[in-house]
Structure formats: C-alpha cells, structure tokens
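Let's study today's protein:

:::
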Amino acid sequence: MTTWLITGASSGLGRALAEAVLARGHNAVLTARDVAAVQPLVDEHPETSLAVALDVRDRDQVADAVRTATDRFGAVDVLVNNAGHGFRAAVEEAAVDEVDELFATNFFGPVELIKQVLPQMRARRAGTIVNVSSIGAPRSNPASGYYTATKAALEGVSDALNREVGPLGIRVLVLEPGAFRTDFSGRSLMQSRTVIADYADTAGRRRKEHDHSHGTQPGDPARAAHVIIDTVEADEAPFRLLLGSDAVAIVREELQSRLDEIDAWARLSTTTDYPTRPDGTRDR
C-alpha cells in the first residue's frame, strides 16, 4: 500500500485519479481549495483517505499539507502536482497580476510541494513525483502563450530534477495530456480582462466565449487515471508520458517539424564553431 498526495483532487483528472487510487486500496491525501468538495470521497474511504484544504499558492498551507499527510500515513510515496488552471490571452493582453497568479498556481506551487516532499523521499531513497504538464509545453497556440509557459517551466524544472534525484532512487514523471473531458475548458478556464481587437482572428478565436470544446473532448479521465497508476507502479517508466491519441499525434507532428527545421538550417547553425585544424583540434 502506497500513499498518494494529489493536488486539485476535487474535479477532473485529479478526482478521477483519487477515485482510482482508493479503489486499488492505496492511501490518498486529497487536497483542494474547497475541502468540502472531496469530503464525500473521504467519507467512502475513512481508513485510507484524508481531506486537506490546500491552495498551492500558499506556502504555509503547502508545508502543512505535507506534514499532515506524513503524520497520518507515515510518508508521502507519490506526489501528484495536478492542481492548476488554463488561461487564455494574447501575449499583449495579459496583465501582470493575471500572469503572476497563473505562475503561482501552475509553477511555483508545484515546485514548493516538490521541495516539501523531497527530504523524506531522499531519506527513504524512494518516491515518485508526478507533474501534470500539457501538450502545450512542446507546442503552444495563440492565446495560450502564458499557460504553456507555466507548463514549459514545469517541464524544465522536472527535467533537471529527474537527473538530480534519479540516482537517489526517486522517479519523476511528466504527464502531457491532450484534451480530456474535464472542467479545463469550462469552469476552470480563465482569461485576460483586456481584449484587443487586432487579435480577434488569432488569440480571439480561442477565448472562452468562442471555445465550444467543453464536454466533447476525446479523453476519458477515468481511463487516464488507471494509466497513470500503472505507469507509477511499473518497473520501468518514461520520463514524459503522453495521454490521449490527440496528444500523440500533435506532439509527434511538432517534433518532426522541429527535426525538419534543424536539418534545413544545420549548415548555417554549424558555421558558428571555431575552425577545425587537420589534426582535429580547433583554433582558440
């Protein structure tokens, strides 16, 4: 039996994962800003679950959540940084306070949780950190620049972290979901207060009032939850895991496009090196 600490467990992928973890007999610490939203699930599993109020932007609450989880179950074996929200705006439209809040929720909050669980994971030489990113990290779209910047930042930290803690027996798993039938494009999607008419045909087309994808996404959160658990429990696991057929198609296309661009410009790119002498050394 392992103990999972899942942020953003009140809805969407976090809720589906919480349900699956508990159904498999593991312990689950379910966090949400509104703890009442997860209490019914805890009532169904009183021996193996715990509801904790957590706004990931609050460093004191982050520390308290990890401490409470450890006091109840002895350790946090799997941290899932799932809490976060979308944000739509052209780069020029977003206000500083809107971007600050987005990074506080989607990036700095997860980083603080990682820092809180790592000491105990290092002591045990075991543990798994799961960071929920997005297919927007490898490829951004108009109106999603700031949201995908938070996910690209999370992936960059995760990449370094993976190389730092892997030798200590700790795993890092980055999830890149496609479109799932959650509240991501509905209740939890935020956007800039400012709207600039010149972006109507680019970023404007993807503002919330023009997005009709909510409720029609191809991804099933319940299926994703079991894939995540299976991957965490597997003897071997990838560093990045795509979730959804759309994710596989989009990221494959993006990576191929990048390779094609590298090849097309490789001759120019390599002209920046110092010349190579006949003996294989370079000029200084």
Q: What stands out?
A: The domain at 3-250 is CATH 3.40.50.720 (Rossmann fold).
